[in-house]
Write a structure and sequence with these properties.
- This protein is mainly beta.
- The protein has a domain of about 210 residues: Leucine-rich repeat, LRR (right-handed beta-alpha superhelix), CATH 3.80.10.
- The chain is built from 3 helices and 22 strands.
- The protein has a 12-stranded mixed beta sheet, with no helix packed on it.
- It is elongated.
């Protein structure tokens, strides 16, 4: 396999794209010039193989063909912000060097191919804003270097606890607006020791907000809004000294806002709207100099204590 293989793979991609799509791609991707000079293509200096392909935000429509899997030296692929349809090909498993895979904001359908879980060098996986169905493949446990995963705004279901919550390298996990169910495991912070961002907003998760989340010492963004969480807000969340954004709105939480929340010196956003909170609003909540946004709407909180 050589640069000719890469050229054939890209021409197969071109042929699967609607002729009404980006005119530069239609005209520029041809035998009249070297593959390494094509729009969006980057080649390696040593081997002159295609190592990166950025065709994002080009208004492309069509499908991703199986031949795409022959770009065996590809490290980064970004096709976000287009109108690609259909399933992702299983042949993606041949992209062993791939570190970045971004097909967000398209109209891709079907289940997420389980073979993606065997791309062992993958660091960033963005599949958000598509029409994917089914559950997260168990093979994702093999993504031992994954740092960022975004599956938001799809039609995924099942549990997220037995798969992604075991990838210890994960720093950012977003699964907003899906149909995931189940609870947040008590040992999450022992598994995801590098977690900085966790956003599970707008799913059907249930159970109590675990006190053990306080052990995620690096977390800056915690989004648990619009699920089915019950019980009280754990005072232990006040130990998350790095926390900047805390979103708990749209659940069935009750009781008082713990005074420990008012000790989060770096907190910028606090949203606990649409719950069943009661009690008095503590004065030290207004001593949080970092706080820029506070939303307590639709609760039963009384006036501030004197």
């Amino acid at each position: 396999m050589n640069i000719t293989t890469d050229e054939s793979s890209l021409l197969a991609l071109k042929s699967s794209i609607s002729m009404n799509s980006h005119p530069i791609i239609m005209a520029n991707w041809s035998n009249a010039s070297s593959v390494c000079e094509w729009k969006g293509v980057t080649c390696g200096r040593r081997n002159l193989r295609v190592v990166a392909l950025d065709i994002s935000q080009m208004g492309l429509s069509g499908t991703i063909p199986p031949q795409f899997g022959n770009l065996s030296f590809l490290v980064s692929f970004n096709a976000s912000g287009n109108n690609f349809i259909g399933n992702l090909p299983d042949d993606l498993t041949h992209l062993r060097r791939l570190r970045v895979f971004d097909v967000s904001s398209n109209n891709l359908t079907g289940e997420i191919p389980s073979r993606i879980g065997f791309l062992s060098n993958l660091l960033i996986l963005n599949l958000d804003h598509n029409l994917f169905t089914g559950s997260i493949p168990l093979s994702f446990l093999n993504l031992s270097r994954l740092e960022t995963m975004d599956l938001s705004v799809n039609k995924l279901n099942g549990s997220i606890t037995s798969t992604i919550f075991n990838v210890s390298t994960l720093e950012s996990l977003r699964v907003i607006e899906n149909h995931f169910s189940g609870t947040i495991p008590l040992d999450l912070c022992l598994r995801l020791i590098n977690l900085i961002r966790l956003d599970v907003t707008s799913n059907v998760l249930s159970g109590e907000v675990p006190k053990s989340l306080s052990m995620c010492s690096k977390v800056r963004y915690l989004g648990l809004s619009y699920n089915g969480f019950v019980g009280t807000i754990p005072p232990e969340l006040g130990n998350l000294t790095s926390l900047k954004i805390l979103r708990l709105g749209g659940n069935n939480l009750e009781g008082r806002i713990p005074k420990e929340i008012g000790c989060l010196d770096n907190l910028e956003v606090l949203e606990i709207e649409n719950n069943h909170l009661t009690g008095l609003l503590l004065p030290h909540m207004f001593n949080m100099s970092s706080l820029q946004w506070l939303n307590l709407n639709t609760n039963n909180i009384s006036d501030m204590e004197s």
